[in-house]
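Quick one, tokens below. Sequence please?
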């Protein structure tokens, strides 16, 4: 697994693990925890969760899955609801997440999406949590270019990621958000990198170009979708699976290097838009 080194010097695998919809059912809890552990052992040490997911159930799953690992070998990310992203609620949300995850700090804490709390208030609250050692860094999610510019004007230059929807079939961020983030040194966490197993874009997985490239690498179409994102500097995909075999398959995608002509074939099959489009969201 190739490593990505954060601003604070911690090495994280080039692919992370999502947790939306995981941890919600007692009958699959152990299997999902085992899938996350298999991912950690395969180098996917970034675990992405949120207070929203299953009302804290995904954070509880992460807390269970990480037992026995050195805390500093992991990179834990959680997110706060926009209506909790200021004042005392931000402090409480963070502490509740820490308790559910059985840890005493988050590596990265994200504003899940923009709500009515002023960005300057969220920045101030995040900086307070950082000063208390409850989080190591903070970032945002679902912010488009204008929001990012406003965030920086509001004193938010220490934002360490913008987590946005990005997959081969949804490339709107390539028009201006991705270049802006790359220029400002803000890594992108690509959510729904598998287009939710193709559900968000019909015909993606079965497309002849994706299938042919997969065959050429003895890889799967899912691995091609991840390799497409890995070919972009500063982009970390965070696929989610509760299935151990899929976890290992996703981790192995880090070894799939697409050639320039394969990337061109994917460009032709799924071109990025020519003009600004609204940020795609889930
Ligand atoms: P995703 O990762 O694109 O797709 C997940 C789906 O793909 C699941 O149905 C999973 O099923 C399947 N899958 C995973 N690996 C596979 C493989 N190797 N082969 C075949 N199928 C595979 O979608 P997502 O969960 O929506 O997005 C990923 C993560 O991003 C989330 O879990 C969450 O952490 C984050 N996210 C953030 C936001 C935000 O607003 N910030 C929004 C959405 C998501 P199996 O379990 O059967 O493998």
């Amino acid at each position: 697994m190739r490593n990505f080194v954060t601003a604070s010097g911690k090495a994280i695998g080039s692919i992370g693990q999502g947790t939306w919809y995981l941890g919600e059912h007692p009958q699959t809890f152990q299997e999902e925890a085992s899938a996350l552990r298999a991912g950690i052992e395969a180098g996917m040490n970034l675990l992405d969760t949120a207070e929203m997911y299953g009302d804290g159930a995904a954070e509880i799953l992460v807390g269970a899955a990480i037992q026995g690992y050195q805390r500093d070998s992991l990179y834990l990310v959680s997110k706060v609801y926009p209506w909790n992203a200021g004042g005392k609620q931000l402090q409480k949300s963070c502490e509740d997440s820490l308790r559910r995850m059985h840890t005493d700090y988050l590596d990265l804490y994200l504003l899940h999406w923009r709500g009515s709390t002023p960005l300057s208030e969220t920045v101030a609250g995040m900086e307070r949590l950082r000063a208390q050692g409850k989080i190591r860094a903070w970032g945002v999610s679902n912010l488009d270019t204008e929001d990012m510019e406003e965030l920086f004007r509001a004193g938010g230059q220490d934002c360490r990621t913008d987590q946005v929807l990005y997959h081969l079939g949804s490339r709107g961020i390539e028009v201006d958000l991705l270049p802006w983030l790359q220029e400002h040194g803000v890594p992108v966490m690509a959510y729904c990198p598998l287009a939710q197993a193709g559900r968000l874009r019909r015909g993606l997985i079965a497309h002849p170009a994706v299938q042919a490239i997969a065959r050429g690498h003895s890889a799967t179409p899912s691995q091609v979708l991840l390799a497409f994102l890995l070919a972009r500097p500063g982009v970390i995909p965070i696929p989610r699976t509760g299935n151990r075999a899929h976890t290992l398959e996703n981790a192995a995608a880090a070894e799939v290097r697409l050639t320039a002509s394969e990337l061109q074939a994917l460009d032709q099959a799924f071109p990025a838009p020519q003009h600004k489009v609204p940020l795609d969201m889930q």
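The longest strand covers residues 75-80. The CA atoms of residues 106 and 235 lie 20 Å apart.
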